[in-house]
Predict the 3D structure of the following.
Amino acid sequence: MTLPTIGRGGTYHRVADPSWDDPLDGTYAAARGGRWNPPGSFGVLYLNRDVGTARRNVDRLLAGHPYGPEDLDPDEAYILVEVDVPHADHVDVVTDAGCAASGLPASYPRDADGAVIPHAACRPIGVAAHDAGLPGVACRSAAPGAAAEDEELACFGAVGERRRRSFDDWYWSGAA
C-alpha cells in the first residue's frame, strides 16, 4: 500500500492527567495501544489540532461517568500541554482521497451506517506508516460532536513542549 501524505506541523495540544510524570511520553500508548498503534508496539502521542478538539476529547473521556467536566477538581482535572510538532508529511486521513487511498471510507471516522470506524481498521495504517519511517498520521477526529474540520495527529516522534495550561484556563476559556 502506498500511503498518501499531507503536510502537518506547528502547535498541537495534548490532553494529559496532571499526575503524569511526562505527558509527552508515548510508552503508555505503546503498551496499551490506541487507534493508530496496536498494544505492545510503538509509542504514539495522540494530539489535538486545536483547543475545541481537545475539549471534545475530554468529553469523550468523561462519557459514561456520573460526573461531568464541571464536577472535576481543578487541581486534578486534565491539563493541556501545547507542543510544537516539526513540519513534515504525515499519512493523510484528513481528505476524502487520503482516507480512500489508506483503505478507509471517505466518510471516516464513520462508516456508511454512521458507526465509528474501529481501532482494528486503523491500526494497520499506523503500523505501515511507522514501518515506512513516517512521523505519524493526521486524521479527522472521531470524538463525539467533532466536525469534519476537527483534526488529530498521532505522532510517532518527539515534540517540543511550549507550555502547560490548567483545566480552568483552557477548557472553559471558549477559545478554540
